[in-house]
Amino acid sequence: MTDSHSLLQQAERQCQRHGVRFTPIRRRVLEMIAGATGGIKAYDLLDRLAVEHAAARPPTIYRALDFLIEQGLVHRIESLNAYVACPCPEHAHGFQLLICRHCGRVEELHLDEVNDQLNTQARHFGFRVERQTIELLGSCDVCLKATARA
């Protein structure tokens, strides 16, 4: 897993390469997401940001989240309505998320062959995929070991 400092440096470089602004608010939102132990909800981000920036409102968070998602720096966990930092934003292909239902830990996979197969099947049916979200909900190794001991 990528540490928060490295992730922020990588985000800065990526934004420079793409010619987009990595504003202090965007940086802080990414920092908060990267520091979370799993997915974090937008209103939890807003509560934290409001402590530092009294003028922070829902549009502030949602604009920052939209930017971070567009840049590939953050993923939305659809099933939880939460957000997680992407450990490898330079990866241009699809991804899959492993989500522990006990502790909330999220791991990102890059099984390009899975995405390729799904896209091939979609084209077979005359369907153009615009966005693909694959989330696998289960138990992480730590939680499995903890329940086995109980």
Number of helix segments? 6
Which of globular, elongated, flat, extended, rod-shaped describes the shape? globular
Strand content: 5-15%
The CATH architecture of the largest domain would be Orthogonal Bundle
CATH homolog superfamily of the largest domain? Winged helix-like DNA-binding domain superfamily/Winged helix DNA-binding domain
Order of helical and strand elements? HHHHEEEEHEH
- Weakly predicted, low-confidence segments: none
Name of the level-1 CATH class of the largest domain: Mainly Alpha
Number of domains: 2
Global structural class: alpha+beta
In the CATH scheme, what's the topology name of the largest domain? Arc Repressor Mutant, subunit A
Q: Compute the separation of the termini in Å.
A: 28 Å
Rg over C-alpha atoms, rounded to the nearest angstrom: 17 Å
Instruction: Provide the helix percentage.
Output: 40-55%
**What's the main sheet like?**
3 strands, mixed
Write down how many β-strands occur, each being a DSSP E stretch of 2 or more residues: 5
Overall pLDDT, averaged? 92
Strand order of the largest sheet: 4-3-5
Family: Belongs to the Fur family.
GO molecular function, one term: zinc ion binding
Cofactor: Zn(2+)
Subunit structure: Homodimer.
